[in-house]
Amino acid sequence: MMKAPVNKIIPFSNVDGPGNRMSIFFQGCPFNCRFCHNPETIHLCLSCGECVKRCPAGALRFDAEGKVVWDSKVCVQCDTCIKVCPHDASPKIRWMTVEEVLAEVRRALPYIAGITTSGGECTLQNEFLIALFSEVRKLGKTCLIDSNGSFDFEADPRVLEVSEGVMLDVKAVGKDWSDELISFPRDMVLKNLDYLLQAGKLYEVRTLIFPGRDRENEETVRYVAEHIQDGCYYKIIRYRPYGVRERYQKLLGEFETDADYAERFAALARELGATKAYVV
After folding, report:
1. Residue-by-residue DSSP string for 246-274
2. Domains in the chain, start-ordered, CATH in brackets?
3. What is the value of pTM for the model shown?
């Protein structure tokens, strides 16, 4: 039976696509972004046990096979396990079947417009998404993908056939800046930008604006804006250090991006034809 690692499910969200949506976060991501604000979603738990001995509620233990097991009923959600994990992982995930996720969707069915899958990187679970989306659409709800762009949508378009579209991160266009920020080549992301736009499946593009990085910010915003024009929303996101691992805060800044500074780049995007650009 097919299962996927689910980090968490937020029953109601109004920031993950149109309308009120259920957001499903999957575990695992190939990017390891230096600015990631939820790095505990990057890797799967290795059962090293550091969290077991540090859990103040006794919600973690080893099973007979030496794997860390999480008791959600005992857990007090203090996140000590996440804070002490040396591997950017979390023991608080559930390996869920499509039917188990659908049970969560059905409980919220009267109150949501659809679901948005995120992560981590949800497209690592592509076969699971295809099965899940097919069932959710039978319930009359829409399906969106929140992706970092690492998956080749053109090579395997099946998941697009059962979804309304993709919310795509374009983190950096310049190679040097991209290599500094993430542990994954940017080429696939840029390929997906063009392909999803042409396919009519690009719902939104997101770019993070970093303080004091005028050249790098402008290069990325200019590239994206000139490509998408008014074809989709363009979310200009202010960098915030909350949750960013301490070892990377010196690289990226210890303070959040000023709103007026971010608005400069949103204005530039609109001037270049991306009329739906806005700051968050």
Report:
1. HHHHHHH-SSPPPHHHHHHHHHHHHHTT-
2. 3-41+93-279 (3.20.20.70), 50-84 (no CATH)
3. 0.95
